[in-house]
Amino acid sequence: MTQGLLALGIQELGLDLSADNIADLETFMREMSRWNRVHNLTAIEGEDDSIRLHLIDSIAVLPVMRKYLKASSPAIADLGSGGGLPAIPIALVESGWNLTLIEAIRKKTAFLQHIRGKLGLGNTEILSERVEAVAIQRPAQFDAVISRAFTNLARFLELSMPLLKPDGLVFAMKAKRADEEMQAVNPRDWHLIADEPLHIPNLSVERRLLVLSPVRKSPPLMLDQ
């Protein structure tokens, strides 16, 4: 793997990663590339594109997440985790955070279990379930929900709502269409806390991270009998 390109991306993001962090990230990308040849985990192939579009894209959200997450060991759900993005890179860098990867496609969860064991990621769990099923089994258990290219924003928020604690946050990784997608979001249900631009080194595509929270509903007024 091209460590120089990886190191360049990390340097420009302002992240202070250890040699072990970099080695683990490289192992993750190498294993993803190997599995992808057989199981089609992702549509993007080629070492340079994979690093830029997958790994660096995923860890670019960390400065924003650190800014808004208040819990010391937050519980975070990654919806439609696919090949483990962004959850695996986040879990590698933030060992104190607890990541739950939710993915319904079995060949992808097989890879996630493989990489979890290979990298010793004790701060992750893999659920081979549909998001709707997890919401029923584990309502209001997560401090945050994140996703990368899982579905449109309105649907993502709909799926996230039952998973979140009352003060939970949604981190939506989006591109230029974010404005269009926000128009479909009901402001009575969701408050946009931040719209943070993300700079992805060596990549001209625009990336944004939307941070949203559910609007707390006031209880109905009780009329005197």
Description of the structure:
- This protein is an alpha/beta fold and 225 residues long.
- It has one domain (3-214): Rossmann fold.
- The protein has nine helices and seven strands.
- The protein has helices spanning 3-13, 19-39, 47-59, 62-68, 87-93, 106-119, 131-137, 153-160, 178-182, and strands at residues 75-79, 98-102, 124-127, 142-148, 164-174, 190-198, 207-214.
- Strands 3-2-1-4-5-7-6 form a seven-stranded mixed beta sheet, with helices on both faces.
- The longest helix is centred in the N-terminal third of the chain and has 21 residues, at 19-39.
The major beta sheet can be summarized as: 7 strands, mixed
Determine Rg (CA atoms, Å).
18 Å
Span from first to last CA? 73 Å
The CATH class: Alpha Beta
Strand order of the largest sheet: 3-2-1-4-5-7-6
Provide the CATH topology: Rossmann fold
What structural class is derived from the secondary structure elements? Answer: alpha/beta
Please bin the fraction of helical residues: 40-55%
The tally of strands reads 7
Query: For the residues shown, what is the average pLDDT?
Result: 88
- Poorly predicted runs are none
| Assembly context of the chains | single chain
CATH superfamily: Vaccinia Virus protein VP39
H/E order of the elements?
HHHHEHEHEHEHEHEE
Number of helices: 9
Number of domains: 1
Q: Beta-strand percentage?
A: 15-25%
Shape: globular
Q: CATH architecture, please?
A: 3-Layer(aba) Sandwich
Protein name: Ribosomal RNA small subunit methyltransferase G
GO molecular function, one term: rRNA (guanine-N7-)-methyltransferase activity
Keywords: Cytoplasm, Methyltransferase, rRNA processing, S-adenosyl-L-methionine, Transferase
GO cellular component, one term: cytosol
